[in-house]
Amino acid sequence: MMRTATIGSLLALHVAVQASPNLPFVINTWGGPFTTATDAAYLSLRNSTASALDAVQVGCSTCEKNQCDGSVGFGGSPDENCETTLDAMIMDGTTMKSGSVAGLRRIKDAIAVARHVLEYTTHTLLAGDLATQFAVSNGFPLSNLTTAEQAKRCAAWREDNCQPNYRINVSPDPKSSCGPYIGIALNSSSPAYKRALTPDASQTSHDTISMITIHSSGTMAAGTSTNGATWKVPGRVGDGPITGSGSYVDGDVGGCGATGDGDIMMRFLPCYQAVENLRQGMSPKDAAEDVVKRILRKYPDGSYGIVVVDKHGQHGGAGSGWTFTYAFRGGSMNATEVVSVPPLTENRRGAKIVYIKLARAFAQQRRGEGER
Q1: Which pLDDT band holds residue 80 (cuts at 50, 70, 90)?
Q2: Which residues are recorded as binding substrate (predicted)?
């Protein structure tokens, strides 16, 4: 009896992690300051006629205004020129249409501009100064995205010879110089060329808010907002505004949000893959773990986080490189809850095998009791 109870407890824990608190439902990457966005999106669904798209915009906009963790909105993650640029994407789970902005300059309301791209154009992505021009033509005010704290931080970075940075195969040596840089001539047999193609996850990752909402009617939406990687090469765009990478949603199946080493993650379209995993019958947790493992096979040293939710609000996550957290609130919950997801390791995969064996043993034992 004791052994049966232990196995049953493991099964109950697994179900509890995946359970839905009912609709409406909001889930997003990260806890801590990001939970204000979860609450804002949830309350918009509970207390008004807001749609799933409205709730995503409210949530991501809240993070932009609050400068969540310094990685979303103005005043964070400057590039080599000490300028903050913003990336955002919003997607409707019914029509599958998305609107995005990348490298948006001098405009604070990135997710709102992305919503305008979705609703007032037949395009998906606008970038750089011309995205700013679009925003201004739609009534968004120009703003200085640099703060005094950011300017001080940037001065210190330059005094430290611009370390770290994202340059490789350039002259002067990017490990001891701020440039300007010139690319070194490469040939296919040179060590430098091989290094350029060799998987490299040595840079630190950055945080992003990626959010999925489910309206009480069952309609779904997703969105992402970020100010990108700190000290990035000017013009760099990461996974955030890329449909299927930073986030993705299909209201017939579910949605996904991603955070981490965006330059690596976007090579795998992780959120598109996660939703397709749901379509093939995987649980949200298994769908997320499968995606992270796909990336780890090629880039084992990076930091990645994936949160997945199905159309019923059942959810799960997976990460690598650090303890990933995500926040959710739904049904009649009085407060947002934060889930910590330990990084995937060989030991963790081994523990999962043990769990499966225990579950099978429990099922066999139950069948035996039924026969008696």
Answers
A1: very high
A2: 236-239, 259-262
pLDDT of 189 over the 90 cut: no
| 320: β partners | 304
Q: Is 259 annotated as a binding residue?
A: yes
pLDDT for residue 193: 75
Question: What are the tens digits of pLDDT across the range 93-132?
Answer: 999 999 999 999 999 999 999 999 999 999 999 999 999 9
Bigger pLDDT: 221 or 5?
A: 221
Is 219 one of the annotated active-site residues of the chain? no
How many domains in the chain?
Answer: 1
Q: pLDDT per residue over 269-326, tens digit each?
A: 999 999 999 999 999 999 999 999 999 999 998 999 999 999 999 999 999 999 999 9
Is 62 annotated as belonging to a binding site? no
Residue 165 lies in a domain: no
Is there a binding annotation on residue 109? no
Query: The domain spanning residue 252 has which CATH number?
Result: 3.60.20.30
Q: Which residues sit opposite 329 in a β-bridge?
A: 26
Residue 260 belongs to some domain of the structure: yes
Rounded Cα distance, 275 and 254, in Å: 6
Catalytic one of 208, 219, 226, 230: 208
Q: What are phi and psi of 145, to 5 degrees?
A: -85, 0
73 is in an annotated binding site: no
Residue 367 maps to a domain: no
Q: Is 321 inside any structural domain?
A: yes
> What separation in angstroms does the CA of 87 have from each of 18, 188, 204?
30, 34, 18
